[in-house]
Amino acid sequence: MSAGTNSGIDYHPAEMPAAGELATLAEGVHWLRMPLPFALDHINLWILDEDDGCTLVDCGLATAETREAWEAVFRDPAFKGPVQRVISTHFHPDHVGLAGWLCARWGVPLYMTHAEWLTGRMISLDTSPDFAPRQIEFYRDAGCGADFLSAVEARGNAYAARISPIPNAFRRLRDGDTLRIGGRAWQVIVGHGHAPEHATLYCAALDMLISGDQILPRISPNVGVWANEPEAEPLSDFLGSLERFKALPADTLILPSHDRPFHGLHARLDNLAAHHDARLADLLAALDRPKTAMEAAPALFRRKLDHHQTGFAVGETLAHLHLLRARGQITRTRDAEGPYRYLRTA
Ligand SMILES: [Zn+2]
Predict the structure, then answer these.
(1) Which CATH number goes with the domain that contains 20?
(2) Spacing, Cα 180 to ligand 1 middle (Å)
(3) Where does residue 128 rank: exposed (0-12), middle (13-18), buried (19+ CB within 10 A)?
């Protein structure tokens, strides 16, 4: 994820909840934050009250610290148990991490879109011997150095380590579905580009959108190419989804997974589109001689990156390279088994 302008948005005045505490945004709609051990150090989760309990939206990373914070939430007087269902917006570990644990603890089903459930289950269960070789080939093709490649090999399947086992059965969310939660209708709107089939939830009665990572106020959601789909071009999908969300009212309160709830949806959608346009132009300008994805990445990411961030930066650079290539603005070549190099055509 990278920085973007957030002009034109107004943060909601609600006070930020401490870990394990609830902040109430509207009757029956609660905001909580869980810690993350990354530069991005928190995730926002949501609890929607029902007549006979509540629905959880997103789960937090599978760590002892997050489990303890959940137990504190369950003891909070504002928590209206029991949990009736768990919704996960997408398969990323900070969102689905504790879904298995939460579903087992309360004996309730997990709701996800098909592609998100499949992707999470598939990656979390991948113990095949060709897992690391696929990752290494992908990052070698991108021009990453030996240091990073050995870190990739040593880390193995990092995804599986960050989640509790995803339930082996689920209930499917589809684009356009309506869920009745606490007497209100919440419509599922699917977005693309950040994850394969990211669910967001819109309540017209409250004029609120639980946007997950699809729309964030300050950082631009990561749009990346990953080893399991090395020729993917997710940026067009992401930009297309921005257009779809423009159909929502301009004064919709956005409940994002990181940072704080905000107003200013349309300005933010425009900012995100402009951000990617500017990054595409920067990248194109940098390709005045053939460069690997790793060599081109500083055009988008100027700060020094650790290994965790390098994977995201390479993936995001490839997403922009693949769109430029689809538009015919750059070419891709390689010699023998060397990395791919990209060069602008004019
Ligand atoms: Zn995500």
Answers:
(1) 3.60.15.10
(2) 25
(3) exposed
